[in-house]
Amino acid sequence: MSAMLFDLDGVLYEGDRSINGAANTVKWFDQNNIPHLFLTNTTSISRSELVTKLAGFGIKSNKENFLTPPVAARQWLQNNKVNRIALFVPETTKEEFSDFNLITDEHEKVDAVVIGDLAEQWTFETMNRIFRILINNPKAKLIALGMTRYWRTANGLQLDVGPMIKAFEYATGTTAVVTGKPAIEFFQAAVSLLGEKDNSVMIGDDIRGDIQASQKAGLKAIQVRTGKFTAADLESGIKPDVILDSVAQLPEWWQTNM
């Protein structure tokens, strides 16, 4: 059987605006009982809030339909028996880490530093605090909730968490454990959640984080011309398996090719 992995922002919606035909596409996959999962690198809202957001666009879902970096990070921490963590994520994301011992004093011992996209909350003071915690705990793991370079907001392109993680890696000599896109393990985890389906397909707007990364994980990758896509992406040397104008064309393509 085949399964579908949907990126969210840039594929099903852009900010607070639904992409035309997105709701009908997801409904088509539901009606045809085709396994699918929503993949997102967002750490600014919880899975419960994502359910509500999609519902506002006419898309039905539940928490179990989403694989997010916090969910993957929580699983990694539990598997590696890491409990004392310093957490730098948006407020709504913290609920995913409620079972851990959260350390707020930078002078206390920590076993891992978990970092998501703080958007406008990024300040020199915050970055330097993270740097000091890592330097004072050389054995602590740096957990990156994704390595997305940037994303498109209503006001234009905006830096994401990836550049910040690169700064911490450079300053401390640490290599981050990445629990979101473009880590191959993130896509492999998604396929596993769907029962290790053959011929899984990823649809996304990010030529590197969605297309190149999912291809490296052994998936077929569909590039849409929405979201952060630009014509220059197709000159990057990365070749999507399929290019569609939008997710609205996906059911027709699926019926013809899968």
Account of the protein in words:
The protein is globular. The protein has a 6-stranded parallel β-sheet with strand order 5-4-1-13-14-15. The protein has a 5-stranded parallel β-sheet with strand order 7-6-8-9-12, with helices on both faces. It is α/β, with parallel strands linked by helices. Helix 7 links the parallel strand 13 and strand 14. The longest helix has 13 residues. The chain folds into 2 domains: 114 residues, Rossmann fold (3-Layer(aba) Sandwich); 109 residues, Rossmann fold.
Keywords:
5-stranded parallel sheet, alpha/beta, Rossmann fold, 258 residues, 8 helices
- Which strand order do you get reading across the main beta sheet? 5-4-1-13-14-15
Tally of DSSP helical segments: 8
CATH homology-level superfamily of the largest domain: HAD superfamily/HAD-like
Which blocks of ≥5 consecutive residues have pLDDT under 50? none
Output the structural class.
alpha/beta
* Domains, number: 2
Largest sheet, strands/sense/barrel: 6 strands, parallel
What's a concise summary of this model?
The chain has eight helices and 15 strands.
Q: Helix and strand layout, with pairings?
A:
Elements: E1 4-7, E2 13-14, E3 17-18, H1 22-31, E4 36-39, H2 47-56, E5 66-67, H3 69-79, E6 84-88, E7 101-102, E8 112-115, H4 124-136, E9 141-144, E10 150-153, E11 156-159, H5 162-172, E12 177-178, H6 184-193, E13 201-204, H7 207-216, E14 220-224, E15 242-244, H8 250-257
Parallel strand pairs: 1-4, 1-13, 4-5, 6-7, 6-8, 8-9, 9-12, 13-14, 14-15
Antiparallel strand pairs: 2-3, 10-11
Helix pairs in contact: 4-5
